[in-house]
Amino acid sequence: IHNMYFTSEGTLRTVWGPAPYVPDYGAGYPSYNEMHGIYHTTMWQGTREVLLAQTGDEVWVFEGWTTDGGGNTPWRVLIGPGASNPDQPAQIGSDRRPRFPAQFETTPAGVVIIPRGEGSRRYFYDGQAVLPLGYNRSPEPPQGWSRDAGYNHSGASLALALDPPGPSIALSQIPRGRLGTISTDGVQVADTTDTGRIPEGTYRCSVQWIDRWGNLSPLSPLSGEVRVTASHTSHNLTTAGLLEFAKVEHQLPEVMWTGISEGPTGTIGRILYRTKDLKNSGTTKLFELPPNAGGGTQAFATLSDNVTVSLPDNVPDGWLTREPDEPEAVTPFLLYKVAFGRGWAANFQEDPSRLQYTIPGRWGTFLERNRIYPDPSGGEITGLFSAPEGLLVFTESSTFLVVISFGGEGFQAKTLSRTVGCVAPSSIVAMPDGQVIWLGQEGFYSYTADGTISPISEPIERELRSINRARRLQATAAFDVKEAKYRCWVPHDSSLRNNRCWEFDGEGWTRRTDVRAVDVATTKDHRNYMLAAGRATEAGPTERNGVWVLDHEVQSFAPASRPSRVVTSWLRGL
Known about the structure:
Layout: E1 4-6, E2 12-14, E3 19-20, E4 35-43, E5 48-55, E6 58-62, E7 75-80, E8 88-89, E9 103-107, E10 110-114, E11 123-125, E12 130-132, E13 143-145, E14 193-198, E15 201-203, E16 205-211, E17 226-228, E18 231-236, E19 255-258, E20 267-275, E21 286-288, E22 311-313, E23 333-339, E24 342-348, E25 351-358, E26 366-372, E27 383-387, E28 390-394, E29 399-404, E30 411-417, E31 429-430, E32 436-440, E33 443-447, E34 453-455, H1 461-464, E35 476-480, E36 485-490, E37 500-504, E38 509-512, E39 516-522, E40 530-538, E41 542-549
Parallel strand pairs: 7-8
Antiparallel strand pairs: 1-2, 3-41, 4-5, 5-6, 6-7, 9-10, 10-11, 11-12, 13-19, 14-18, 15-17, 16-20, 19-22, 20-21, 23-24, 24-25, 25-26, 27-28, 28-29, 29-30, 31-32, 32-33, 33-34, 35-36, 36-37, 37-38, 39-40, 40-41
C-alpha cells in the first residue's frame, strides 16, 4: 500500500496534505533554510507549549501565529549567529554531510538541545532563557591575603564565664578571626597573663561556578599557599581568682580571598572551597566554605551573586565538613536521554564509546567517575532510549540495557544482543504496548520488556536493501497517535534525503512519499499532530523547506500530485 491509509470504515483512501504549520496569511511563508530538526514538548506542568526547530545554522522557537499581514514571523531565533539577533549567539553550522538529526530531550527543568552541525556547545532552554549546557571550562584560581601579606582584621572582644562562679574577669581584646588551632587545653591562672599558642598554618582555596539550573563548573586550580604565622592569645585577669580555662579554638586574624572569578552569563553564584590547616590538620582535602559565620544548610553558594570578587574568611577548620563535587568540563556529545533522574550523554567527540551520567537533577554536571563503557569492544554508541526497565544503549551491532547495580549504588550494563544494534538514534520509538522499535543494520527490530529483541520487517526485507547505507544514520521516526502507527523516514536508493516513509501498525507495513522529512515529532498535547521538518512539493511544482503538518490540508497550500496504489496477490485465487 503506497500513499494510502485505512479509514475508520475499513476502506482505503489517499493520504492528505501535508499542510504548512504556518500557512500563508497574505505575508508569505516564513523563509526556512535547510531543515535539520524539530521537537515539541510542554513545560511548567503542561502550561507552556514549546516547539523548536533547527533551520540552517539557527534554532528557532515558535512564538504563535500572526495574521497582521506585515511579514512578522511567528518564529524567534533562539540560537544562532549574532547577525540574526538570537537569544543565545552561537556558531552551530549547517551542511548536508551525513549526520544524526538535531537531538532534543526534555528534563524536569527544561530541554537539552544538541544542534546538528559543528558547534562545540550543547544548550539548555527552560522556556524563558537559553544558555550553554553546563560549563566547558573552570574559573581562574583566587588569591589569598593574610596578616603576613598586609591584611589584618581584628579587634573583637570575648567574655568567658567563671566556673565555679567568682569575681568578674575582663579579657583583653583578641582577634576575632577563628583560623588556626590553639595548642593548649587549659591552664589555671591568677592575676596574671596567660598565653595560648597558635602554631603556624597554611591554607589554599578553589572556586566553582553555579548556574541558574544548579549546574556546577569544574573546580578552579588551587590558589597559592596563604601562610599564617604563629600567634598567641593574651588573657589579662584584673581580679585574683581561679579560672578553669575553656577551650578557645581557632583564634587568628581573618584571611582575605580576592580575585574570585566572575562566571559567564547564567552564573548566579560562586562556591569557595578551602583546605584546613595544611601544616597541622593532617589532610589536604578541600571543604566548602559556608556563606556566613553560622553556616546554614539552605545556602546554595558561598557567594550568591556573580559580582563580588573578594571574601573575608574567618571560618574555623572544625566547621568545614562538606567536600566538593568535582565535575568535568562539558565536551561535545551527540546523544542525550533522561533516565533514573539523571541526564545520560553519549558519543562524545573525543570518546564515541563513552556513556556518562550527571549528578541527579543537575542536567549539565558530569563527574569523571560516572562513566560507563557498555561495549567492551569500544563500539561507537549510536542510540539511547529510556525504557521502564532501564536505559537502552545501542551500537551499530549491539544492544545493552543499563540498570541499577546489584549493590544499589552506581549502574551496570547488561548485554541484550551481540548481533543487533541501531544505526539511527532518531528512529527509536516506543509503542503504546510498551515495545520499542528502531532501525538496525538489516531492518527494523522491536524490544519487549522481557528483554527479547525480534526482527519485524521480514515482509519488506527486499525493499529495505535499497536504503542508502551511507545516509541511514539520518533516519527519523515518530508514533502517529491518530493511526496508531510507527512511521520512519529513510533515504531510499541514492537519495541524500529521507525520501520514503515506512509505516508499521503492529501487523503489517505500508509506505508513503508525501514529504522528505529530515526530522519528525508528535505534539505532546490534545492535537496529536505529527510534524515534519523537511521538504514538500507544492502544485506547480515548487519545492519548499518548512515545518509541515502531516495528514492535514489547508486552502492556501495545494500539494503536488503523487501516485497512490495497492499491490496485492489476493486475485490469484480466482
